[in-house]
Design the sequence.
């Protein structure tokens, strides 16, 4: 019973991996697209930065003031 389930599961997982990798295999410089906000060129063009970097930026701006969320000039709250 276990083997009847295991073999199709392995085949499905292998097929999914193959289909996901086809684009990378076919492309000349095949590599995964950058999905991290801080490393994505399009996100940087639009001025979108990661939450951690935004927090650091806010804390630097309000250094010496009361550290409340509303004191940060780059936040929309």
Sequence:
């Amino acid at each position: 019973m276990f083997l009847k389930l295991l073999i199709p599961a392995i085949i499905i997982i292998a097929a999914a991996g193959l289909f996901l990798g086809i684009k990378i295999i076919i492309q000349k410089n095949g590599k995964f697209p950058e999905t991290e906000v801080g490393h994505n060129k399009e996100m940087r063009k639009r001025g979108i930065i990661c939450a951690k970097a935004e927090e650091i930026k806010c804390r630097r701006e309000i250094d010496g003031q009361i550290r409340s969320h509303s004191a940060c000039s780059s936040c929309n709250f």
Notes: Residues 34-64 form one domain.
